[in-house]
Design goal:
single chain, Rossmann fold, five-stranded parallel sheet, about 45% helix, globular
């Protein structure tokens, strides 16, 4: 099965998500790479998106908070082809009551060949890559 890359000259969309324990790391990442991220349409779960807007000043289209459906909303956009990449800083050391939603999002990124970063090193590759 061939996976064509999207070469359209439209504004690409990146989803930004971070678990509570990783939100400071996400804010620092966005602050450090604001000059690159401002070239994308940004979508985020409720709390993460709000923090980015308040603390960094970038516009972020906010979905619901992850535990009440935000991860699923972003997963639906992945399936619809409306998300170019997902940056999801996952806290592997904590339990999450909405883990099935998280796993659905991660699985759908893989099924639909959408780049997925779960740490800052991979996220840098995505934002500087060829989306």
């Amino acid at each position: 099965m061939a996976y064509p890359l999207n070469k359209e000259k439209t504004l690409k969309t990146i989803a930004l998500i971070a678990h509570d324990g990783k939100k400071p790391e996400m804010i620092e990442f966005v602050r450090q790479y604001k000059h690159v991220l401002k070239k994308f349409h940004l979508v985020g779960t409720g709390t993460t998106g709000g923090l980015i807007r308040e603390e960094v000043g970038l516009e972020v289209e906010q979905m619901l908070s992850g535990p009440i459906g935000g991860d699923v909303q972003i997963a639906a956009r992945v399936v619809e082809g409306k998300i170019s990449a997902v940056i999801f800083f996952v806290d592997q050391l904590e339990r999450h009551p909405h883990d099935p939603d998280i796993q659905t999002l991660l699985r759908l990124c893989n099924v639909h060949n959408v780049p997925l970063a779960t740490n800052p090193a991979t996220a840098r590759l995505i934002i500087y890559g060829d989306l």
